[in-house]
Amino acid sequence: MGLFKKMLVLVWLALLPSLLFAGIEDIEIDLEIINPGAQVFVVGDFRSNLATTNFFILHLANTGADPVPMYLEAEIKYNGVQIARGNSNVINFPPGYPALAYGNQQLMMGALLPWGETLTLDEFDVDLEAVENLENQILTTGQLPAGTYEFLMRAVEEGSGAIKPDNQQNHTLIITNPTTLELLFPGRPVSENTIEEITTTFPYFQWQTDANPQAVNYNVFVYEKFPEDETVQDVLSHPAVLQLENLPFNFFQYPLSSDPGAFSGQVVGPMRLLEAGKIYYWLVQSVIPTGTGDLTITSEVFRFKISDLAGSANYAAQILALLEQILGPNYWPVLQQLRDNGFEPNGTIFLQQSEIEVSDLLLILGKLNRGEMEVNDVGVY
Fold first, then answer.
1. Does the pTM of the predicted model rise above 0.85?
2. What is residue 17's three-state secondary structure?
C-alpha cells in the first residue's frame, strides 16, 4: 500500500508542471505591427489619450478546454533598452470563441469582449531617463528618436505568473526620421537666375534622401513652363506633362515614347514627351510610412531647358549617352575616342538597307535601353 501511495505522489509531481502551465499554453497571442516599414513614430501614437489610429493589432485565442485567468504585459525597447511598459486588467479568457483581434485604440480605451468583460491596456509607463538624451529629443520633436524599436506583448497567467510570449514576428521598427529630399539633376533650383540647358529630350532624373530606401516611394511631377507664366505657382498650376506615383527608385529616365508601361511606378493621367527649346519644372515627393500613416516630404522645384536639337552635335550627345548605357563599360573607351574625335552623325543612317532619320535611330536606341530590343552583335570599324 505504501508503495502504491509513493507511485501516486510521483505521478502527481510529474503532472504538476503541465497542470500549472497548461492554461497559459492554450493561449495564442500575436502582436501584428500594421506598418513594419514605418520610419517615423509619434509618441502620442501609443498614448491612450492621444492615439488617433491603430499602429498594431493584437490577436488572441484560447485553444484549450478551460477558462484561463490572464492579463497582458506590453513592453517597448529602444536599441535593446526598455523604455516603456504597461499591463492590462485581469480577464477570465473562456474557450470556444473565434480568434479575437483588437487595435491599440480599442485596448487603450477598453475593448468589450464577447463574453462581457472589458480588456484595457493601461497607458504605457515611459521611462524617459532610460536612455541618455531621450527625453530632450522626444520633447523637441514629439517623435521617437532614430533607432531600432521592439514592440513586445505577453500573456501572463494570473496566480502562477506563467508567461506566453507572442510569436515576435515583424515587431521591430527601424526609425530614421527622414527630413531631407534633394534634387540632383537635371537642372538647377528655380531660385537661381540661370537656367541650365541640357541636350536630350529623355534626360535622367535623380534625387537623394535620408529615408530608408527599402521603405519609401516617390511621386514625381514634371511641368512645362509657358511664355505667359510669371511665377513658379503659375507653372505648377498647369496639368503635369508627367505625373509618376509610387516609384520605388530615386531615379528614372524620361522615355522616348508615351507608353506608360515603360515606368516602374504608376503614370497618372496623360503623359507628353519633352520637346526641344522648351523649359520644364520638376519636383519630387517622398512618401514615408509612419506608425499610423504616411508622411510626405516635398522637394524644392528644379527647372531646366532643352536646347534646340537641330544641330547634329546635340544628336551626337544623345546617341553617345544611350550607347554608353546599352553597350556597357567594355565599349566606353571606344565611345570616349569618338567624343575626342568630335563624332557627329553624318546624316545618312540605314536600317536593313532603308534610310532612316536620326530621330528614328534615337527611338530604336531607347527601346534597346529599356530592354524592348536586344543587341546580338557589335562591330567596331
1. no
2. helix
